[in-house]
Amino acid sequence: MKSRILIYGVDHYMGALTSRVAVARGVSHIGAGRDIAPVAQHAAAMAGPAQSGGPVEPRIFTPGDAHRIAGQLDDVGVVVNAARLSEGDFNSLLIASLATGTHFIDLSADRATAAALEARDEPARQAGVMLLAGAGFDFAAIDALAARLAYILPGARAVTLAVKRGLLLESEARALIEAARKPGETVKNGQLAAARPAARRLEVDFDAGPEMAWLAPWNGYATAARHRGAYSTIECFEALPEPLERVLAAGGFKARLFRRGWGLKRLEKKLGRRRSRLTETQLTRGRAVVWGEARTPDGTLRRARLETPDAHLYSAEAAVVLARRTLAGAARAGFQLPSAIGGAALVEEIPGVAWRELADPSDNLAFEIDRPVAADAKSA
Asked: 346: closest CA among 78, 165, 136?
């Protein structure tokens, strides 16, 4: 039985952070990437001056040829992909994982990535391989809150979720801006529904007073959770950085220019501030929040809030929790969401995570929004 964890992307920030967290939790693993020097330097840094070996074994390979990658996975039980890969490279890594019976965990919350994993649900079941989307904050924390709301409100069929992330890296700012320019989807009554970014807004208390969150159909959680879950109506909102919020809220000519690509570089600089990584102070002091409201067809509702460490740190911690639980036998073959494998561990085993059910759910949302509650039928 293959029993090793491979973290791909340690030559970049999120992969290196995930590897650091794994070492801190006592998990020896393979630290892999495409660039020799950064991978070797990371492994050496994790070993420390007093050790001849170390908890991170460096491994170098470039996605692109699934057959060659398969040779790198002979001893690997689960791949944790923390790298931003092109579609071709991602597919080759995924194909190699299926061919070698290696479970696959991806940190991305990108809609296209989730769709690519979901599309291989049946081949993964036949191969006995788990494909898990969104091990990072944008899926794992959201899914943990949504799952717990479904538990405390049996019969809930609709959920509204809102996220406040914190600091963005430059690459994340670029991805957010690109996503906010394109149409996305929500899920209504089990069906995908086209949605325009920031088409509606919601006033949410993330525990520091009311703040505005905007419809975020770029978050792939809604469409991924449609595959198999408690809810048949799902909407995601996000508190946006002020410069992007101003552009989207302005509407009219300014919003049209944004969608056509005007001023994107300047906006990227404002949001990402050329950050390729967070300082230790930013990482340890940062906080992120997910707010959620679940509703039954008769109008009963429950609200809750999940506060986590910085979103990047939570992502790394969640990926390690999920990888360990996968190797311990919790993996389910086929396409999965984090709560199916992590369960309560995504809240209870990650340092600095606080869950709170909000005591007064009877007041109405501050902004009237279209939120049809699904009929009490089998979830999609």
From this structure: 136
Q: What is the pLDDT of residue 265?
A: 77
- Say whether both 113 and 246 belong to one domain: no
In terms of domains, do 269 and 184 share one? yes
How many degrees, rounded to 5, is the angle at CA 104 between CA 92 and CA 126?
85
Inter-residue contact 88 to 116 (CB < 8 Å):
no
The label of the residue with tokens 């969104």 reads 134
CA gap 298, 318 in Å, rounded: 35
User: For residue 329, is pLDDT > 90?
Assistant: yes
**What pLDDT score does 268 carry?**
74
Q: Does residue 300 sit within a domain?
A: yes
C-alpha angle 170/176/180, rounded to 5°?
150
Instruction: Show the domain range for 79.
Output: 4-135+313-341
At 59, which CATH number?
3.40.50.720
Q: Does pTM surpass 0.85?
A: yes
Does 266 have pLDDT greater than 50? yes
Higher-scoring residue by pLDDT: 205, 275: 205
The answer to whether the beta carbons of residues 106 and 81 sit under 8 Å apart is: yes
CA distances to 139, 189, 230, 289 from 112, rounded to whole Å, are 14, 22, 22, 24
Sequence-distant (≥ 6) Cβ neighbours of residue 151 within 8 angstroms: none
